[in-house]
């Protein structure tokens, strides 16, 4: 949540444009992107925590 908050605070217009772009993508593409982001986050935490 820190990264998301930082992005919103530092680049609010960029986040807004990204959200608008995401709303135009098909649900399947958003789902795959979400699964990829989830897996990346889990792996990152796993490697950092050792």
Automatic annotation (TrEMBL):
UniProt cross-references to InterPro entries, sorted A to Z: DUF2065
Alphabetically ordered keywords of this record: Membrane, Transmembrane, Transmembrane helix
Name of one Pfam family that matches: DUF2065
Transmembrane regions: 29-48
Protein name, UniProt field: Uncharacterized protein YjeT (DUF2065 family)
